[in-house]
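Q: Hi! First time doing this. I have a protein sequence and I read that you can turn it into a structure. Is that right? Here it is:
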Amino acid sequence: MMRAIGTPLLLSCMILPGVVACRDESSPPSPQVVVTDSAGMLYVRLADLDSITAEPWQAEEVYNTAAGAAPIEWFRVTAARFLADGSLAVANSGTPEIVFLDGAGAVQRRIGGAGEGPGEFRHISVLRLNRAGELVVYDPRLGRLTRIGPDGEILGTRRFAPPNRVVDLLPLALLDGSRILAVYGGQRIFAAGGERRDSTPLFVFDSAGAALDTLGVWPAQEWSYISFAEGAARREVGFGRTLAYAGRNGYSVLGSTDSLDLTVFDRTAHAVMRVIGGGANDPVAAADVERWRADQDEQMAAAPEALRRALSQTPHRETYPAFGALLLDDARRLWIGSYVRPGQTRQRWTVIGADGQLDGTVFLPADARLLDVAGDRLALLRRNELDEEYIAVLRLVRAS
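A: Yes, that's right. Below is the predicted 3D structure, encoded as structure tokens:
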């Protein structure tokens, strides 16, 4: 079964020996989205993301934690998740603790603190909700999952450690049967010089934390390794490719930013949707290279001269990545964020429903990180003019 979104085609055709040549008289050469359903697997082919026209959505701020008489101080926020009661759980990993905000942005309670005991953390990288509505927290330093009840009670912990010390695990989805779908998060691998690209397997782990299966291997972050007299360093390749991923409610999505080619997995770790985008990646503008170099120099202003000189040789790619970020919301809609180029102030998000159809598009601040979407609520991580973090919660407004 094939469904196409777009204007019905009016064709004029010329019949030649062995050939039927048709010309579209009323619409673009191809529809914006073509969805093919094959034995329960959806194949979604998109036109170029920049050219897609879908229902425009607006986002209005409900609250932000930098406003008011007693703004909340944040330090290395890594994740957030809307809960069933409308509150927002935020992983303030620099503390490390979980801060629960009510619907108006006031602090309800805090859980955590530095340590290794029950309810304590050394780092927090992931917040998930299981099917019982419990908050599941992952600490990659301790290699431990912690379950937290709706009232903040610590319900239990579970060992979940990486296979070696040079990588972190990152749980994408809590699957049926207490299994976990995970990829590598941070990888602490160094080389003497040149360029190297990380890769990550997609693992299925059992309830005891043992790897059951590997569903594939994806290319991940591109790095440039630089040696100089005083030591060695690494830096992300300019406009380089990486692996984007997201998970919610047992579902997950991942794909390399080399091209728009995404795979969605369900709670049984089976692929249920593949999203492929058309169009070649745009060439990097010379002005963007200059802006990128200037930003790198500014970030390293306080570094030793030898290190700054070495890192100034970091290479860059000649084309932009195909996209910038992914997110799954509580309705299993897939949010695809455009790649943010230097100097851009807005990031376009294209939203695809669980049926593969286009739902809408919304522009968000380019300097924001989209942490979670549930219903009509969006949670963003932003920074003020002093480079201090704050949380902004927005309400999605649709035209229809």
